[in-house]
Amino acid sequence: MDAAAERLAPLLSQLVNYERLRPDKRLWDLAAMRSLLVRPGAPPSPRPAVQVGGSKGKGTTSVFLGALANAAGRTAGVYTSPHVTTLLERIVVDGRPISTAALEPLLRHVIAAGAGDRAPTFFEAMTIAAHDWFAAQRTDLAVYEVGLGGRHDATTALPVDASIVTTIELEHTDVLGPTEAAIAAEKAFVVRERGLGFTAARGEALPVLRRHAERVGARLFEFGEDFGLRGLRWQPDGCRSQLWLPDGRELRLFLPDAAAYELTALALAAAAFAQVLPAAELVLDPAPRPRLPCRFEVRTEPDGELLVLDGAHTEQSLGAVAAELQRRWPDRRAAVLFASAAGKRWREGLSALLPIADSFVVTEVSGTASEAPAALAAFLAAGGARCEVAADVASGLAAVRRRPGPRLCVGSFYLAGQVRALLDDARR
Description:
CATH superfamily of the largest domain: Mur-like, catalytic domain
Number of strands: 17
Distance between the termini: 14 Å
Shape: globular
Largest sheet: 8 strands, mixed
Helix content: 25-40%
Number of domains: 2
CATH architecture of the largest domain: 3-Layer(aba) Sandwich
CATH class of the largest domain: Alpha Beta
Strand content: 15-25%
Strand order of the largest sheet: 4-3-2-5-1-6-7-8
């Protein structure tokens, strides 16, 4: 149970939480956020600031930006979502989550101000709270991760100096559109008028981002074209490479305990950091090693086996997790605990896991609408996979622990977070 959420429940109950309710209709405009930014008593926006959007890797890129600032002796505020254990994780300054005591008056102020003719949503209120907290802490860099999309996301109302679109893939198609091009058209709006943009997008999404940048007079820096990595050399303790930047510099890079998918996130963060804080040292050898819960988080089990927690839930992100498992443990197949929030492309996601899985346990998660475990199991059985249905997350964890590792818990941040909480409770 999230102690902060319990204490703040009287305030949070006044906010509509679209992350959990998943209603058919949502509030799609930035008017409320813009009114909150100019409410009486609102602080000036912290600058410089970076907005991070895209389909996957947003959180990893965001925390790398904060870590690079800290390594250079600068103060950084990083706003991410969703949270895994406590909502305090969303608002962090120099690696320290905001306290409940600090968050409470910020939320009270936002709710009292209102958002025009309605109350702010949960995400709007938390976004303004992050903005105000970073201003109060006088951060040298503020980083805001997009919640959903870009065009109408609350973070797009905040003034920034650079924007990142990590990747584009099929996700939230009911809201953002049925193709990568349509999704890119929504996410492209994080790149601001006459601003700086950075992206690792490929395929049909990239021309959409280019056209948007040209239309708004922004400069778009592309991974592999304007900056990137050369000569990756994997070692037992991490990965070495050469990072080249838009300004022509080429720097040695070493990321300890690297996962392959993190390298692009670090390159995006470093390229943006070099532009918005050009006088700051760019510390890359070794690069700082931030950690996010449930992003390829490796735990050692009581029986000595390894359990990987990851919130990946799209085909490409699950494919990246599968590739990392295969790279680290090439001679072993994983026992997989899987659940999916409703409306996700879980068939494609499971298909990405089939080549590296020995067996599956499927279940459902609490706190949000889930896909029926029976449907997941039927799909896996039709594909020839061994599969067991568990009544709940605790039963699923017990079932996957009866199988040899490595063990993988994946498919939903709700699932990974609930397993993480069970593991932490067992340690106390």
